[in-house]
Design brief:
Helix content: 25-40%
Number of domains: 3
Strand content: 5-15%
Number of helices: 26
CATH architecture of the largest domain: 3-Layer(aba) Sandwich
CATH topology of the largest domain: Kinesin
Structural class: alpha+beta
Bound molecules: adenosine-5'-triphosphate
Number of strands: 22
């Protein structure tokens, strides 16, 4: 079945006013007035038009905590007891009410999803025990951790006891991950749970930002394990409730230093999540789960069981583009299919025998470690129960309609039974119309949603297919987002060229596992590089600035920053020049739409014609963030400069010409040569971040150890390195001997090593990783 997506619009906060409300909940045509499943929001470019996004349910400002829980979460509890895992997560921009929804307030009425879920679990457990005359015993255990700056920390441990690198995570197959060394606490009653939960929440990283006085600076993951034991079997299932940190537009937050780093990390992980969702929806072979710990843990689309996403939205104009971005993300997420697989019970050999030890085993097993899985068993009545993989995907992405009057009313294309909270077909219904529009795209036309209390009917006869309109609107929203910021708010993932992505992955791998002071610096470098890949040069510069103290006096880094600063400055000057010229597109847009625009203002269907010509041609406009959605600048701005310094020769023994040696890092140098540490300073202006990181990694004990082994020129030692073997070891030694011109020559960096015959980047990486494994 698909991920169930439920939107919740929070009420106005004290500082917000009714006049600024632009987001509301509506019912889909044909469904009961009180059943809301559509979010409506104006087109920022043309406010007489509105976008409509349809989800499984939508809760308006007036919805209470109880209302949301009863409608969406309570029905999952019975599935939990049938052995299905349940994943609930709250997604939204900072300050939209995720923590309020998940945790809630202190009063009974204000309690959020998590305490209510636990209350419901205990109630059901007691009933089950009672109904079975105590034959069945139910135990509950919890673990709770946060992902802060891409590191996992146990929330049962106070911050001062944390190790800087956090807890490792491990893949355990079936798309599942396990946090190693996590505390798991049994909790026998709701009271005990609440005590532990409150205590752990004190350890969660929260801080005041300009947008939220109690902003979560981490993703919090609560895992509740339910162990049902009878004389014959033990069944374990897990409910995971995740309060994601919110994406932040750092122009609005004024974040500095630590907050900025947190924000970059939050935005990065959410960006990766968006990339994963995008890749899943495009059915790509590679889903970039591994690029962030949060996405690895959430494993959206890989996890089994039931998944409910609560999309938190703010109702006001100041969040306009962020809200559209979230809606677009949710729109894709709702199409992700999740296998509904029940956890298999463990059967006992002899009733009663070994019961205590098995129970103990289940309790002490690491959190999120689940039982072997078997195929889905369709269970009885519930809104989640009989949705099979054969059921088509949701009918609508979203609709666009104009407020202009119409002479001919159009019959609603929506099926009457669309998206009913307790109706499985509501979750996944595809209208007949949609089916045909998908089959024959040219005939497709988005269904219209008539607005309640509105006699006005949509008029325009769209000439584009529903999918084309969806793609167009998504693109326009992202264009506006990209235009708006030089900061890292979450937007449509840019298509990062494979080569750049490969380098980012390699860089990330290098950073992973480094627990030293340098690792933090490398993290900043990595983030800088990621910002740069997305064309966010100002943010990249900030990250370099944060990295600098970790590599004092590193000339290469300083040069890089200077070059970047100059580039930003020259772009700024260019921009000013074009604005003064009075013909800039941006100016026209700004004057038409108060600074936020999406293209032409008349009709959505006509909009492609209004896209800036330069964009269509893949040329970077003056705005730094264009590369959010346009791949070419990525290549131009990052790749070009990387090209020169990539590990190049992989097959040939080559002794670099002396002149070249001084221009770039020397491939080999003699003992007598001037020592350089790190060996990066001789590099030129165009060197890349990953080169820089490689050079910096060159200082680590593991790298030194590796280079020492290589420099022994001893085949018997070298062949023991991972991925080498006797033949390759011999080739390496031969290569070193060939280059030996009488004096003692040594391999002085990973880069040099990579250039030896038959080694290459991958070979070096293998050797290093292998040494790490040996050390561990
Ligand atoms: N449904 C609601 N009813 C009343 N108040 C709400 C509701 N939703 C959110 N709020 C209020 O809005 C503010 C922001 O909410 P919250 O801290 O939950 O946002 P968040 O999305 O978790 O933000 P962040 O990502 O920064 O942690 C809080 O003061 C909260 O009490």
């Amino acid at each position: 079945m698909s991920v169930r997506v439920v939107a919740r619009i929070r009420p106005l906060l004290k500082a917000e006013i009714e006049r600024d409300v632009i987001v509301d909940a509506a019912s889909a045509p044909g469904s009961a007035e009180e059943k809301k499943s559509v979010v409506r929001i104006p087109n920022p470019k043309n406010e007489s038009e509105a976008f409509s996004f349809q989800f499984n349910s939508v809760y308006g400002q007036e919805a209470t905590q109880a209302h949301l829980f009863d409608g969406e979460i309570a029905p999952t509890v019975k599935h939990l007891f049938k052995g299905y895992d349940v994943t609930l997560f709250a997604y939204g921009v900072t300050g939209t009410g995720k923590t309020h929804t998940m945790r809630g307030g202190k009063t009974l009425a204000e309690r959020g999803v998590i305490p209510r879920l636990l209350s419901s679990i205990y109630r059901r457990a007691r009933k089950l025990e009672k109904d079975s005359a105590e034959e069945t015993q139910v135990e509950v255990a919890m673990s709770y951790y946060e992902i802060y700056n891409d590191r996992v920390f146990d929330l049962f441990e106070p911050p001062e006891k944390r190790t800087p690198a956090g807890l490792p995570i491990r893949d355990v197959g079936n798309g599942k991950t396990q946090v190693v060394g996590l505390t798991e606490r049994p909790c026998t009653s709701l009271k005990e749970f609440e005590m532990l939960y409150d205590q752990a929440n004190v350890n969660r990283s929260t801080s005041a930002t300009k947008l939220n006085a109690h902003s979560s600076r981490s993703h919090a993951v609560l895992c509740v394990k339910i162990i049902q034991t009878t004389a014959e079997q033990t069944r374990v299932s897990t409910a995971s409730a995740i309060d994601l940190a919110g994406s932040e537009d750092n122009r609005r937050t004024d974040n500095k230093n630590e907050r900025m780093v947190e924000s970059a990390s939050i935005n990065k992980s959410l960006f990766v999540l968006a990339q994963c969702v995008e890749a899943i929806s495009r059915k790509q072979a590679r889903i970039p789960y591994r690029e962030s710990k949060m996405t690895r843990i959430l494993s959206l689309g890989q996890n089994q069981g039931l998944t409910v996403m609560i999309l938190n939205l703010a109702p006001v104009r100041s969040y306009h583009l962020d809200t559209l971005s979230s809606l677009n993300f949710a729109n894709r997420t709702k199409k992700i299919e999740v296998n509904e697989v029940e956890n298999q019970p463990i059967f006992r050999e002899a009733p009663g025998k070994g019961r205590e030890s098995e129970k103990f085993g289940a309790m002490s097993a690491p959190a999120m470690h689940r039982q072997p899985l078997r195929s889905k068993v369709i269970s009885q009545a519930s809104h989640l129960k009989d949705v099979t993989n054969n059921v088509p995907k949701p009918a609508k992405q979203f609709s666009v309609y104009a407020d202009r009057s119409s002479t001919s009313g159009r019959p609603s294309a929506h099926p009457a039974n669309i998206a009913q909270a307790r109706n499985p077909s509501g979750v996944l219904l595809k209208s007949p119309k949609r089916t045909s529009s998908e089959a024959i795209p040219t005939l497709g036309r988005p269904s219209k949603i008539s607005r309640p209390n509105d006699n006005v009917r949509p008029t325009a006869e769209p000439v584009m297919s529903a999918d084309a309109i969806e793609a167009l609107v998504a693109r326009k929203v992202n264009e506006a987002l990209a235009e708006r910021a030089d900061h890292s708010t979450i937007v449509e993932p840019p298509a990062v060229p494979d080569e750049v992505q490969r380098r980012l992955n390699a860089l990330e791998k290098r950073v992973e596992g480094q627990e030293t002071e340098r690792a933090e610096g490398l993290q900043y470098l990595l983030m800088a590089k990621q910002h740069q890949v997305r064309g966010e040069e100002a943010s990249a510069l900030k990250m370099y600035q944060l990295a600098l103290p970790h590599f004092p006096g590193n000339e290469k880094l300083v040069r890089k920053m200077t070059a970047l600063r100059e580039r930003i400055e020259s772009k700024r000057v260019e921009k000013r020049g074009s604005v003064q010229g009075g013909v800039s597109l941006a100016e026209k847009r700004a004057s038409a739409h108060g600074g936020v625009e999406l293209g032409r203002t008349d009709s959505v269907a006509d909009a492609p014609a209004a896209l800036p010509r330069s964009r269509a041609a893949g040329v970077v406009e003056d705005d730094e963030d264009e590369s959010y959605h346009e791949p070419p600048p990525v290549r131009r701005e990052v790749d070009d400069e990387d090209e020169e310094l990539e590990y190049q020769p992989r097959t040939k023994i080559r002794r670099p010409a002396p002149a070249k040696r001084s221009a770039t890092a020397p491939m080999l140098h003699h003992e007598s040569a001037v020592k350089h540490s790190p060996p990066v300073d001789s590099d030129d202006e165009g060197s890349s971040d990953d080169e820089l990181a490689i050079a910096l990694v060159a200082q680590t004990p593991r790298t030194k150890h590796l280079l020492n082994i290589i420099n022994t020129k001893d085949v018997s030692q070298i062949k023991l390195l991972k991925g080498v073997g006797a033949k390759k070891a011999e080739a390496i030694v031969n290569c070193l001997c060939d280059l030996d011109d009488g004096s003692e020559s040594r391999v002085s960096s990973l880069r040099d090593l990579g250039m030896l015959k038959g080694v290459g980047v991958k070979g070096v990486e293998k050797m290093r990783v292998g040494l790490g494994e040996m050390v561990v």
